[in-house]
Amino acid sequence: RAEQSIIQLHPQYGVEILTKSGVRDPMTIRAVAEHHEHWNGTGYPSGLKGDQISKFARIIRMVDCYDNLCNNPDASAKMTPYEALSYMYTKLKGHHDIELFSLFIRSMGIYPPGTVVALSNGEIGIVITINPNNPLKPSLLLYDSNIPREEALICEMEEHDDIAIEKSIHSEELPEAVRKYLNATSSVTYFMEKGTNA
Question: What pTM was computed for the model?
């Protein structure tokens, strides 16, 4: 309990660090102060609920949660991107603004880039791009020991009605040769494209 109380001071420490560093933007300061508040009011430090939490803080909370699930320092607790999204949806649903979470899933895809997957035809691949029109059919780089890595096959799943993703796989579970071929790292890395102002 004492350790938890200390951990829960970190939003306050974050605000102090920003202030001492010369950051004065009210939206940024507020987002750091509120980034552990939950949509259902069970967060900290103030127990804010719903729209009482700034939108920026709600976004940071959601992304921070996702990243912590995917990149947990405890390897046994680490989740694949697919597992993390599923866990957030089923177990932590009340923690997040459902509208923002829906947008997050749409932008990340059900199988975010970097997710290693097993296919119904027995092949293994890694998601390289999502398919906004069909989230269950992303583009994959396929493992094939008979083809050099630099010539690896790209599978546009949308073009193959007979192939489906059966499950996501932890990169640590892969044989070393497969992991290196797919360049599957133990940490999830994120790539963002600059959006347009709508």
Answer: 0.82
